[in-house]
From TrEMBL:
<dbReference type="GO" id="GO:0005886">
    <property type="term" value="C:plasma membrane"/>
</dbReference>
<protein>
    <recommendedName>
        <fullName>Sec translocon accessory complex subunit YajC</fullName>
    </recommendedName>
</protein>
<keyword id="KW-0812">Transmembrane</keyword>
<feature type="transmembrane region" description="Helical">
    <location>
        <begin position="24"/>
        <end position="42"/>
    </location>
</feature>
<comment type="similarity">
    <text>Belongs to the YajC family.</text>
</comment>
<keyword id="KW-0653">Protein transport</keyword>
<keyword id="KW-0472">Membrane</keyword>
<keyword id="KW-1133">Transmembrane helix</keyword>
<dbReference type="InterPro" id="IPR003849">
    <property type="entry name" value="Preprotein_translocase_YajC"/>
</dbReference>
<keyword id="KW-0811">Translocation</keyword>
<keyword id="KW-0813">Transport</keyword>
<keyword id="KW-1003">Cell membrane</keyword>
<dbReference type="GO" id="GO:0015031">
    <property type="term" value="P:protein transport"/>
</dbReference>
<dbReference type="Pfam" id="PF02699">
    <property type="entry name" value="YajC"/>
</dbReference>
Amino acid sequence: MSFFISQAHAQGGAPAGAPPGGELFQIGFLVLMFGLFYFIAIRPQRKRQKEHAAMVAALSKGDEVVTHSGILGKIVKLEDDYLVLNVSENVDLKFQRNAVQAVLPKGTLKAI
C-alpha cells in the first residue's frame, strides 16, 4: 500500500537561494505599504472632513451657499442640524447643514 502514497521528506533548512532575514523584509514591506496608504488616502480625506466641518459650523444667516445637489440659495434661518435656504422669491427649502458644499462670495446670486 505504500506505493500509492509518495514519501514526504522534511527539509533541513532554508533553500540555498533564499536570503537570510527574508521574513523581516516582508514585515517591513507591509509597514511601508500601510504608511504609504496612510499618506496618500487617509490623511488627505481627514483634512477635507475637518475643513468641511469647520465651514458648516461657521455658517451664518445671510450667507450664500451651494448644496451638494447644486442648489444655490441664501440662508434665511439656522437651526441645530438644519438650515432654510431662500432659492427664489417665496421659495424656501430646508436642508441638513451637511448638505452645504461651499459658501459663495457675497453677491454671487445676483450676478447669476
